[in-house]
Design goal:
With 190 residues, the protein is an alpha+beta fold. The protein has three helices and 14 strands.
C-alpha cells in the first residue's frame, strides 16, 4: 500500500525555513525555503538553523520527531538514527540545527511517474487525484510524485518503522491525491 505523509499540525509544531538564513547558507539565488522541486543541495550545503511554528495557534505544542513543509522532511536526531538507512537511498540527508540541537532535513530526490489519465493536481479548483502503478514502486520506501512535488509518499515498510518506534509529528493517509485532508485538520489552514 502507498500512503501520503502529512504533518500533524493539530498536535505538533511544523518546521519552517527562514529565507534570509537559507540565502546566507546557500547563496543569494537559493529558493530552498520555498521551492519544493527536487533539487540536490548536498554539494553546496551549509547547515542552517530552522524554526518551528504553530499552524493553528493556541495550545502549547512540542517540536516533533518528523515534520513536513515545502517538500522537505525535518528529522530529529532520534528519527534520523532510525530512518537514515532507508531514506539515504532516495534523497539527501542534510544537517541542520534548531534550538541548539542537531537535526536533519531529508531532501527527497526520487520522483515517481503518475498515471497521466487518472492524476490531477489543480489546487485553484480544489481538484486532486493521484494514481500510481504500485507494482513499479514496491522497493521505493519514500518518493515524490511528478505531479505534486510538495508531497511525500511512502510504502508500508517505512510507515511501520515510524509507527513502531512512536516517532511523532506526521500522519499517513491512503487518499494519496488529497494534499489537505479535512480529517487531519488541513483544510482550515490552507
Amino acid at each position: 500500500m502507498i500512503y501520503r505523509i502529512h504533518p500533524n499540525i493539530k498536535d505538533y509544531l511544523m518546521v519552517t525555513f527562514d529565507g534570509d538564513k537559507a540565502r546566507e547558507a546557500l547563496g543569494e539565488d537559493t529558493d530552498f525555503y520555498m521551492d519544493e522541486r527536487p533539487f540536490p543541495y548536498q554539494n553546496e550545503w551549509q547547515p542552517m538553523e530552522v524554526g518551528f511554528d504553530d499552524a493553528f495557534g493556541g495550545k502549547k505544542k512540542e517540536i516533533p520527531d518528523i515534520s513536513l513543509n515545502v517538500g522537505k522532511l525535518f528529522l530529529s536526531e532520534k528519527a534520523y538514527n532510525l530512518l537514515k538507512d532507508k531514506l539515504s537511498k532516495f534523497g539527501e540527508l542534510l544537517p541542520i540545527t534548531f534550538e541548539g540541537k542537531k537535526g536533519y532535513i531529508f531532501n527527497g530526490l526520487t520522483i515517481v511517474k503518475t498515471d497521466e489519465k487518472l492524476s490531477i493536481h489543480d489546487p485553484l479548483n480544489d481538484r486532486f487525484s493521484i494514481e500510481f502503478n504500485e507494482n513499479n514502486i514496491e522497493e521505493i520506501s519514500i518518493f515524490k510524485a511528478e505531479i505534486d512535488f510538495n508531497g511525500y509518499f511512502c510504502n508500508d515498510e517505512l510507515k511501520n518503522i515510524i509507527e513502531s518506534n512512536n516517532l511523532t509529528g506526521i500522519n499517513f493517509s491512503i487518499d494519496v491525491g488529497n494534499p489537505f485532508p479535512e480529517e487531519l485538520g488541513m483544510r482550515s489552514t490552507h
